[in-house]
Amino acid sequence: xxxxxxxxxxxxxxxxxxxxxxxxxxxxxxxxxxxxxxxxxxxxxxxxxxxxxxxxxxxxxxxxxxxxxxxxxxxxxxxxxxxxxxxxxxxxxxxxxxx
Length: 99
Known about the structure:
Low-confidence stretches: none
Number of domains: 1
Helix content: 10-25%
Largest sheet: 5 strands, antiparallel
Shape: globular
Distance between the termini: 35 Å
Strand order of the largest sheet: 4-3-2-1-5
Number of strands: 5
């Protein structure tokens, strides 16, 4: 077994992989928030505004945020205004488009 840590490389995490991870944690509905005029990252947010994932624009790599394990119910079915909901279909469309 090769244990040379210097040969290790970071694995690219895709939008599909992070969406699968977040839904496996129990998040039922997620939304994409585009960068603002000063921002450099796309964010994945929950109904209550928690950022659970971010995309590094320079690399295209996705990261889970510290709030990813904070899963709350949404009994009032609140939907954030103006954001794209992430469903299996929308994730597949974005991935096919190179996102």
